[in-house]
């Protein structure tokens, strides 16, 4: 597994944008979409690859997300709430945030390893971005949700801006 890889670099650069971060978190918190999968869809678009939802759904990345990343996030959220009334939990919260980031890095490495299994395409970037992000929405049953699709459109535009 290659933890330092082009997908990780892409994710760090794009997620540093306030617009991308806000849209990704809204899609995660309000629509149940994965930030890492959204960033993966954007990266695949930059690589001129079609995202195959079935590859993601049956991957080690999915397992890692469900068994490690998501539970860490849930615990971090609980500690974030608790530290409002118990300030001594701040160092625990920080450690959980760092652990979650490392778990996301491992998840992105799992996703990166799938890249060679996705087909290349000649679709225009804007059409490919819409299609790839739509596949992520499909994975969680949000492909018909108007609010989700509007957020995905905005995210697609933000991801297509030059780095």
List the helices and strands and how they pair.
Blueprint: H1 6-15, H2 18-31, H3 35-46, H4 53-57, H5 60-82, H6 90-114, H7 125-139, H8 146-160
Helix pairs in contact: 1-3, 2-8, 3-7, 5-6, 7-8
Give the tags:
163 residues; 73% helix; mainly alpha; single chain; 8 helices
Walkthrough of the structure:
The protein is mainly alpha-helical. The protein has one domain (6-160). Helix content is 73%, strand content 0%. Helix 2 (18-31) runs antiparallel to helix 8 (146-160), helix 3 packs antiparallel against helix 7 and helix 5 (60-82) runs antiparallel to helix 6.
Q: Segments where pLDDT lies below 50 for 5+ residues?
A: none
Strand content: under 5%
Overall helicity: over 70%
Which shape, going by the Cα principal axes?
globular
Radius of gyration: 16 Å
Structure annotation, total helices: 8
Describe the structure concisely for a colleague.
The chain is mostly helical.
């Amino acid at each position: 597994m290659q933890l330092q890889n082009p997908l990780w670099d892409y994710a760090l650069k794009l997620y540093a944008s306030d617009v991308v971060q806000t849209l990704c978190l809204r899609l995660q918190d309000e629509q149940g979409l994965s930030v890492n999968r959204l960033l993966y869809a954007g990266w695949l678009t930059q690589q001129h690859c079609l995202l195959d939802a079935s590859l993601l759904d049956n991957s080690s990345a999915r397992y890692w997300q469900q068994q490690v990343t998501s539970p860490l996030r849930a615990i971090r959220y609980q500690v974030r709430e608790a530290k409002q009334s118990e300030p001594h939990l701040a160092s625990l919260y920080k450690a959980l945030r760092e652990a979650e980031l490392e778990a996301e890095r491992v998840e992105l490495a799992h996703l990166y390893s799938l890249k060679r299994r996705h087909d290349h395409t000649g679709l225009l970037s804007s059409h490919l971005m819409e299609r790839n992000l739509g596949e992520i929405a499909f994975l969680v049953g949000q492909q018909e949700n108007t609010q989700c699709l509007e957020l995905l459109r905005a995210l697609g535009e933000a991801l297509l801006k030059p780095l």
